[in-house]
Amino acid sequence: MAKIMPAGDPNLSRAAARRRLAFAGAAILAAAAALVYAMAPRHGNGPSAACPGSRERALALQPLAHGEMAALSVAPWPRPAPEIAFKSADGAPVTLASFKGKATLVNFWATWCVPCRREMPALDRLQGKAGAEDFAVVAVNVDTARLERPKAFLAEIGVKNLAFYADPSADALQVLKAEGLGLGLPTTLLIDREGCGLAVLAGAAEWDSADALAVVSAARK
Fold first, then answer.
1. Does residue 126 share a domain with residue 29?
2. pTM
3. What stretches of 110-183 adopt beta strand conformation (E)?
4. How far apart are the first and last CA of the chain?
């Protein structure tokens, strides 16, 4: 005759299940925290002598990181922007440092990046609305092949306000990754007139929205 095994205590079974779920949840939270830490921009953990007025601008930006700007990561302690070089439309060398004296929204994009293509018209409109002696949108293309495509794409969508900049070596992306400021495209840096990084936004955004214009207004003060 088959031996009948006694049924287990259902309360104990439910308690064990709860413990397993709690353990799994804790593991997921720990992994998520590690990922967020790894992706967090290295904005520094104290004041920088090179950025004396940037802290106040960053504090003014923090409450503006909502709506279309919800993904904006504001630097708690702004540091000098990374040393990044690229070229102008005529091939002349340009660096981020050459824009010191004006606030800049520096966007890195490529023609193979669908979100980049989607947000480019808004960046062009932002330059048209807010571009001035104290502010500029600097869109840097990082295509490494078929270098005729970026200019053709911009002409196709009717860009008329943005100056053309390119880094066909894509060295800028490596610098951004090393600084913890960019893990993909598009990536946009907000830099103040002192040349200090105020914020970074990973992914596309509506850059000519009221939320974005408020951020730009605070950065250029």
1. no
2. 0.80
3. 135-141, 165-166
4. 88
Query: Residue length, the chain?
Result: 221
Residues 34 and 69 in one domain: no
Q: Starting from the edge strand earliest in sequence, which strands make up the sheet with 103-109, in order?
A: 73-80, 196-202, 187-191, 103-109, 135-141, 165-166, 85-88, 93-95
> Which residue's structure tokens are 């400021």?
181
Helix (H, G, I), strand (E, B) or coil at 208: coil
Residue type for position 202: A
Query: Which tops the pLDDT comparison, 56 or 35?
Result: 56
Is 5 a domain residue? Answer: no
Q: Are residues 23 and 48 in the same domain?
A: no
Query: Are 64 and 109 in the same domain?
Result: yes
Instruction: Give the model confidence (pLDDT) of 203-217 as tens digits.
Output: 999 999 999 999 999
Asked if 164 and 90 count as a contact pair (C-beta separation under 8 A), the reply is no
Q: What is the dihedral of CA 112, 113, 114, 120, to 10 degrees?
A: -110
